[in-house]
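Batch manifest, entry 17 of 40.
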Amino acid sequence: MDAESGHLHQLEQMLGHILPRQQRQAKQHLKAAQQRQADLEALDRYLASCATEEIYDKLSQHVKAAQAKVAQLTTAHSQAEQRLSQINQATERTKKDLQTYSQLAIDLKNTNHLLKSAARVKQTLALFKQKLKLHKLNHLEDLVTKHFLYLLRKPDFVHRVQIDTETFKLALYDQSGELLPKHRLSAGEKQILAIALLWGLANASGRQIPVAIDTPLGRLDSEHRNHLVERYFPQASHQVILLSTDTEIRAEEVERLREAGVVAREYLLDYDPMSRSTAVKDGYFW
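Output type: C-alpha cells
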C-alpha cells in the first residue's frame, strides 16, 4: 500500500510539475530549432546568391595585389617625402647661395663701377695734371720772361723764355721767334737768367719764401749790378739774405739799399786767422 502511495505521489509530481516543465522546455527547443532552421535556410539563400569560389580567388588576388600596391605606394610616398625634404633643404641652401651671390654680384658691380670711376678719375686727374702743369709752366714762363727782361740790360735781345714740359729745359726765342742758342749769352746774362728763374719759381709758388743769395754780383757788369741792386734785391722776397764780399756789394750799393729802406739788419763776418774763428759784428762798411 505504501509502495503504491509512493508511486502515485511520484506520478502526481510528474504530471503536475515535471511534464509541464519538460513540455515548456520542449517548446523552447522546438522554437530554437525552428529559428536555426530559418537561419540555415537564410544562409542557404545567401550562399546561393554569393559568387563562386573562382571569383573569390580572383577577388583575393586583387586584394593581395592592391595591398602590395598600397605597400609599394606607401614606400614610394615615404621616399618622396624624404626626397622632398632634401629638395627643400637644397632649395633653402640655394636661396642663401643666391642671396650671397646677389650680394657678391652687387658688390662686384659696385667695385667695377668704382674701378671704372677710378679709371675715369685717374684719366681726368692725369688730364687735369697735364693741363695744370701746362698752366703752371705757362705762368712760370711768363714770370721768368718778365723778370729776365726786367733785369737784362738788353731787353730786346730776348723776346720769350720757354720751358719744356717734359725736361723743363729753358729755351730762349728772339723777336723773330727764332731759337736763340744759349752760348750767345754772356756769363753775366746766364747768371741773370738763373736769377730770373729762381725769382719766377718763388712767385709761382704763391708762398712767402725767404731767399738766401751768395756772391750775387759775380761776373756781372755795372748795369746788371745796378739792376740787381735796384730791382731784384728789394723785391726778391719778404726776407732776403745777401752773403757778399766787399768787392761785390760795395759801399755805394749798400748806401743805395739803405736809402731805399730795404735793409733790416747788417752784419760783418770777420775771420781771425790767429784764432781760426769768425766773429760776427754789427754793421757793414761802417
